[in-house]
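Posting this for the archive.
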Amino acid sequence: MEIYISFSILIVIATIFSYLNLRFLKLPSSIGIMVIAMLFSLGLVIIGNFSSKPLDDFYQVVRNIDFTQMLMGGMLNFLLFAGAININIQDLKEEKWPIIVFSTLSVIISTIVVGAALYFLLDSLLPLAGIHLEVPLIYCLLFGALISPTDPIAVLSILKEAKVSKALASKIAGESLFNDGVAVVLFTVIFSIAQGMGDVHISAGEVTILLLKEVAGGLLVGAALGNLGYWAMKTANDYKLAVMITLSVVMGGYLFASSINISGPLTMVAAGLIIGYKRKKYHTAEEHSNDILGSFWELIDDIFNTILFLFIGFEILLIPNLRDYWETGLICILVVLFARYVSIKLPTIFIPFREKFSTGSIILLVWGGLRGGVSIALALSIPEGPYKEVIISATYFVVVFSIIVQGLSIGKMAKRMKI
């Protein structure tokens, strides 16, 4: 009952904030809702200085919701499937090599660069300025692993509003859809080492096998579910049953993927891409004009996106000492952008892609690599310890900057650069 009450409150608040954004702020929906939620949270904190009851009551509502479980174990599956079903798989095929490289090698490069650079700055340079915040290298690498993947939910949401070229949009969207599997494996391995602190020995071969199982397993199972789901939809030829079939693919597919320890997110991406591709290929123009299934998943996408970005805005209430880490937050923003540039630039130098990447394209790929709820969920999943608060705070600074500053400016940058 408590979960029902909490979600009911979130839905009502999300509706009100969506209305306020549409009427007054007129920002892209996801960004506008998050901004209003942050302002609302700050208002509660100010009110709390005079009367703590409103703040305490709402804090309990937010705290009772397990954001990590809510996103990684539920909402992410629906959002990834909804995003993938509307993406043209042919566009991804045309950009397959950049997508493969950026969603695997670039994540690894970024993790290493973020971890090494952050450790050097915190351990060597900040003490010269009188700021002493010692974080072990392994936890800097852990932060690098959770912040390096671009968030598919944030990217797909913002790209709907941004006016960028089809090729660039395909690279950014494709990378964000497929890099979760690599990031989760890296995060799991580094977290195991951090917890064991030398007692855990994980070989490169074991990491490779784990990565192949997560990624390849997720893609294969997702493709099988997508083909099976489309076959059932085609033979049944009933739009109500088609909606139920896709819901079963998402919900049952995630349970199956979890039970055999493969990547649930990649399973959903593959299933969504297959079903979306086959529906576009084999359906007539008249069927597309009356696409009830597409409208259903577009509505699911909008509702869950609204709740997700609303909750990201409310996360500020769960970080009581956020203002104590603003210097670290600013440093992490710069470090993450630098690592993103290195992780994109290096592959374009050493790998002979079919197309040559211009300086403008690289800049937009760097700036379009948005971070979002996945990074926050991974940060919140870290058990209580001496470094959890600084990691969560740094993650929040990077995510908020990424969504608001980068998200609002990517379209204008692309227009100015004529890309």
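Residues 204-236 form the longest helix (33 residues). The mean pLDDT is 87.
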